[in-house]
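Posting for a labmate who doesn't have an account.
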Amino acid sequence: MKVVIGIVVVLFILLVVGWLGLRIRPRPFASYPAQTPPLQTIPLPDDLPAPVERYFRLLYGDQIPVITSGVATGRATIRPFGVTLPARFRFIYEAGQGYRHYIEATFFGIPIMKVNEWYLDGHGRLELPFGVTEGPHTDQGANLGLWAEAANLPALWLTDPRVHWEAVDDDTALLYVPFGDGEQQFVVRFDPDTGRLRLLEAMRYRDETSDKILWLAGTLPGATIQAAGATLDATGAATWIDQGSPWAVFTAEEIVYNVDVQDYIQARGP
């Protein structure tokens, strides 16, 4: 009996320790050393669907900044294998062309898993401690990720000439973005009360062996961040429809634009 009680006590302690370790947020990465320079602007286009025009007027007024690169830094929770882990991240963007994601999942604030992911020259590569993923399905999903994450630099959806919008109704529009020699499509939904962006929906491959599945990239009301004079929603969530809840929730704590990322986007680590 004493042995059984001892085992129960040890298991209880381990559960409490595990719970505490997963409750501690990591320290954020250091601020990016460069700052956003003065940005050129273009007039707000006059042929946008109503909810799209409302959204961009809310963010920028009638002058849209021209953004060529970005670095977003913040903290997150991710669920790579069924357990929700606190994390910190740095995402580097060459606007409309490619990205690098660096993520550290932590326990008691200590990194226990590092993720390096690139989408460069039209090809995606995901490096995890337990393997590498790449191929045509990865490329398809990575390009959707690139354009969904333009929520961190939303002016790109207007300033890139390859992008176009199509009206649906008062709160919904279709967004078409380039992919290889063709296009990909998002259904974009806006909040009917505030006009803010709330959801991008697309059919995406989850891995190299899967069929396409509905993927949701949402912005969550609450925390905001200032970037190029605009007040952006700071928190985004990524959800596979069959999982029912986000596998990742990212909150940006710093965003800088139009900085030199030519070498940094091809590197590893923070």
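Reply:
Got it, the structure tokens are right above this. The domain at 2-266 is CATH 2.50.20 (outer membrane lipoprotein receptor (LolB), chain A).
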